[in-house]
């Protein structure tokens, strides 16, 4: 299922069934001030509890009708009489946020959703959503978001929305066994999560269980799509389920129909490209006819979503076969450029292939052009920077300029850190080189010959011959394998 960036549902935050009031809906702030004055004067004839209750009734009504400045003021007046309950504080925070009083809202949320104490479930859940839905979230944000979900779950252990959000977080962070366990607990009541469970089980190599739950998901999603044919999301999920079950033609057919119906939705085109790539990957055989089928599917993928970087490895592999199909592919990529289609990716593939073939001038042109067209794509920046480091003469400073902004956005990508480490070696920044290269071997590049040789050079220059020798030994061993 294509990930939407949202958790299972945050509709729970809106507290279905709340008793809404309409008494002061839409009144201007001046009238609210008069109302506050009236209520204050009435203290002489009413108890404080009565006055506080009236403030809260009018505050809730103002919030319900969208008058959040008025609501915030009324909540504050009620709080002057006596501290608000956590539900009222939460509603006050939401109104303050809508009214643009972010600092006030954050202060309230920090009070009712502390990081180390289970206080108010809705506030903890809301805080988790803010941390985890942020596309620029850091690892610290993920850890804090998980802590908030766990605190919410302490308070409401049977809340399936919280459990689904926690399971999704486990899945996204690679803790697949825990994700599967959580999804298993809630799918009997929530069949819409069957596909997530199936994908978790597939990653755990529990093939039969994954298929069984995938088929359950398919049955449910087919019913949903049939019940409401205009529900694009239901059909989108149905296509994802067919792809999971490797029924690629059916999945592609549904997505093609969705694209025709809603051409402005790029997620449908990206999903169709992914289906074609998975379909191509599933093909078995190394003969020329199979390669031709691979090429046809990858060409389809490129035609529907021209910036799909996941195509890079597949097309590079096919291009490196040196047969009739690879020649057809090279001609196809050149034709794309001539006709203005898939320009960035076509330049990237031709430039990367040229670099491997020692075709210096064409490679330089294609990689630089790819970078101009796709400056925010990590693989484009990495390949262009690597070329600059290995060109004659090397250009490490320019490589660092290219890599800096990309690494700032994606510091966890080991290939980028490895390339930057090599750039630091070239300008003799030994300590910076060690920091990046050690990160690279710790995060996926252990055994890389060039990385260990780079560390050997850096440690030699830093006066640590024992460490340098150890990295040389690992590099030589890896080179012999």
From TrEMBL:
Pfam families per UniProt: TPR_16, TPR_19
Keyword Amino-acid biosynthesis listed: no
Keywords assigned: Membrane, Transmembrane, Transmembrane helix
Keyword Cytoplasm: no
SUPFAM superfamilies assigned: HCP-like, TPR-like
Stored InterPro entries: TPR-like_helical_dom_sf
Transmembrane segments: 20-41
PANTHER family from the UniProt entry: MEMBRANE-BOUND LYTIC MUREIN TRANSGLYCOSYLASE C, SOLUBLE LYTIC MUREIN TRANSGLYCOSYLASE-RELATED
Identification of the protein by name: Anaphase-promoting complex, cyclosome, subunit 3
Species assigned in the record: Stieleria varia
């Amino acid at each position: 299922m294509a990930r939407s960036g949202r958790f299972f549902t945050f509709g729970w935050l809106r507290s279905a069934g709340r008793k809404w009031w309409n008494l002061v809906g839409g009144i201007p702030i001046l009238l609210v001030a008069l109302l506050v004055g009236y209520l204050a004067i009435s203290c002489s004839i009413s108890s404080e509890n009565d006055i506080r209750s009236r403030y809260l009734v009018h505050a809730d009504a103002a919030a319900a009708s969208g008058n959040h400045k008025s609501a915030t003021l009324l909540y504050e007046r009620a709080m002057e009489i006596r501290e608000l309950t956590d539900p009222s504080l939460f509603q006050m925070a939401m109104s303050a946020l809508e009214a643009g009083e972010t600092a006030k809202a954050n202060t309230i949320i920090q009070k009712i959703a502390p990081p180390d104490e289970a206080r108010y479930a809705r506030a903890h859940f809301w805080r988790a959503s803010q941390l985890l839905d942020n596309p620029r979230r850091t690892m610290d944000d993920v850890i804090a978001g998980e802590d908030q979900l766990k605190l919410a779950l302490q308070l409401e252990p049977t809340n399936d929305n919280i459990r689904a959000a926690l399971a999704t977080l486990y899945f996204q962070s690679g803790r697949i066994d825990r994700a599967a366990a959580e999804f298993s607990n809630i799918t009997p009541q929530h069949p819409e999560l069957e596909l997530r469970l199936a994908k978790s089980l597939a990653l755990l190599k529990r093939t039969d269980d994954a298929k069984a739950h995938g088929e359950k998901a398919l049955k449910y999603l087919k019913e949903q799509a049939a019940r409401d044919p205009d529900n694009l999301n239901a059909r989108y999920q149905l296509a994802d389920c067919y792809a999971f079950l490797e029924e690629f033609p059916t999945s592609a057919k549904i997505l093609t129909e969705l694209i025709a119906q809603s051409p402005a939705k790029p997620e449908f085109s990206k999903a169709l490209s992914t289906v074609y790539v998975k379909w191509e990957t599933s093909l078995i055989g190394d003969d020329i006819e199979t390669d031709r089928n691979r090429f046809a599917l990858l060409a389809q993928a490129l035609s529907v979503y021209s910036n799909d970087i996941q195509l890079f490895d597949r097309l590079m592999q096919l291009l490196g076969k040196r047969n009739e199909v690879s020649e057809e592919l090279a001609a196809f990529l050149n034709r794309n450029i001539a006709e203005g289609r898939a320009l960035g990716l076509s330049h990237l593939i031709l430039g990367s292939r040229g670099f491997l073939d020692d075709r210096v001038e064409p490679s330089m042109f294609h990689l630089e052009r790819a970078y101009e067209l796709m400056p925010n794509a990590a693989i484009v920046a990495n390949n262009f920077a690597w070329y600059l480091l290995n060109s004659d003469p090397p250009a490490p400073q320019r490589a660092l300029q290219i890599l800096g902004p990309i690494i700032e956005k994606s510091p966890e990508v080991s290939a980028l850190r490895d390339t930057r480490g090599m750039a630091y070696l070239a300008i003799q920044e030994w300590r910076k080189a060690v920091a990046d290269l050690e990160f690279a071997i710790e995060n996926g590049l252990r055994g890389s010959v060039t990385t260990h040789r780079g560390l050997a050079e850096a440690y030699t220059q830093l006066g640590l011959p024992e460490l340098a020798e150890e990295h040389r030994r690992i590099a030589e061993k890896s080179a012999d394998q």
